[in-house]
Amino acid sequence: MAKIAYYPGNVARAGAYEVEDCIQPLCKALNIQLVELPKASSDGGNVIKQATPKLQDSLVARNLALAEAKGLDIMTTCATSHAIMCNTADDMKRDPVYASTINNLVARTSKVEYTGETQSRHLLHYLVEEIGLDTVRDAVKNPLNMKIAAYYGPDMQRDGACAGDDPFMPTYMEQLIEALGGTPVDYDSKCSSVGSTSMLTLEDSSLAMTAAVLSDAIESGAELVVSACTVSHINLDSYQSKAGRVSGKNTSVPVSHLSEIVAFALGYYPDRLAQLRTRVRLIGS
Fold it and tell me: Which terminal CB of the chain, N or C, has fewer other CB atoms within 10 Å?
């Protein structure tokens, strides 16, 4: 059985319970043991970093150290959280003096230090590289049978954060969608930002960015958009109607979390899958 520490990020257990509903059963189906980190904290969400990078890096290093103490890598379903952990790990590896400063802060409060052994893994990368697409394909009970646009966002699409995928032209999610019985839709905006962290200060710009991604996916033939980021998902889903009104573009398309479609395809929550199929048919008609 594969074993990995689990970090839900800032959203999954606060405003996206559907992610938590799905991550546990899908991992059980694929023989993955998730190890909780009860003492883990927020990673700062790149909000704290704007005021004090050292504090955010200390929070992240502490979370990584907690997983490292168990001898495990750490997995998250959120591209933003994954990128934040990768950034902190890279900064500490690049600058030993800075790493020592961060570890001194962490050690004083939590009695642990991060040595760089534990790495962050996004659910997408873990499924493709560690579990394997053949294993996923063999576990499918309810093929998706929908035209699906994968949304990666910009955060994890860089060297060091995108695992073995291409940072500029990623295909991991498309490969996973095919394994789940769906039809991937290619579109230009799959790595574009939707301005999630700017929603409170630059709302119109953020809505315009959101509308650009959604309208591009729709025009490319998508019946469903699947997001690898729980933070970006808020813009794509909750704000899509407002984004459409502000931009004048068609933004009406169902949006799901990556963990949801995996769980649905593996046979969990057939009622939710049926509701999703109904939404796809109604919106697409």
Answer: C
C-alpha 54: how far from chain center: 24
Tokens of 70: 């168990």
Question: Does residue 147 share a domain with residue 280?
Answer: yes
Q: What is the pLDDT of residues 145-159, one digit of tens each?
A: 999 999 999 999 988
Structure tokens at 170: 């990623």
Which domain, by its residues, includes 93? 2-122
pLDDT, tens only, 29-39 = 999 999 999 99
DSSP letter at 267 equals: T
pLDDT digits (tens, 9 = 90+) for 115-144: 999 999 999 999 999 999 999 999 999 999
CATH number, domain with residue 110 = 1.20.1050.140
- What contacts 268, CB < 8 A, 6 or more positions away? 22, 25, 26, 29
Half-sphere exposure of 270 (CA within 13 A, CB side): 5
Alpha carbon 45 to chain centroid, angstroms: 13
Q: Which residue has the tokens 């600058």?
A: 95
Number of domains in the chain: 2
pLDDT of residue 199: 72
Confirm whether 210 is domain-assigned: yes
The reported pLDDT for the residue numbered 45 is 84
pLDDT at position 285 is: 46
Q: Return d(Cα 217, Cα 261) in angstroms, integer.
A: 17
Are 33 and 70 found together in one domain?
yes
